[in-house]
Amino acid sequence: MDPTVVDDAEDLYRSIRANSDEYSYQDGKLVFSSSAFDDRFMKPSVDRSSLRPNSEDVRINAADGVTKVVTADVRRSCKIPIIKNGAPVGEYAVDAIHRPIENDQNDPDNLAHCQIECNPIIESGSRFKKLKAALANLANKHGFVVTPS
Prior knowledge:
This protein is of the alpha+beta class and 149 residues long. It has one domain. Strands 8-9-4-1-5-10 form a six-stranded antiparallel beta sheet.
């Protein structure tokens, strides 16, 4: 499958491990932590709702939960400054890039797979922490689409 442009209105689903530090309840309110968007390549994976309409299919394990963020919110709300010589010189462009997985020896096929990526590429752990925190804040607006069991 060739990658396609992700529409602004599309929901992006993220699997959240059950009984993990990826979420907690504070004063009875669900709060996602930035660790919910950890990724060793600094490009958190999400699944497109238009290509995976059953949000339960996003779960990595049967007990996991699922949250969502909206593509337009990702594009406009994740404001991460670019710092050069200690001074801000702009902001990273953040986007959901459709990267379908097919015939990969390490991963099962997933035609709905996307990555949240920055331009220029984030290479700093501190910048990636800001991206993860922004994504967690967006997920907090929607809570669980599928509650962990």
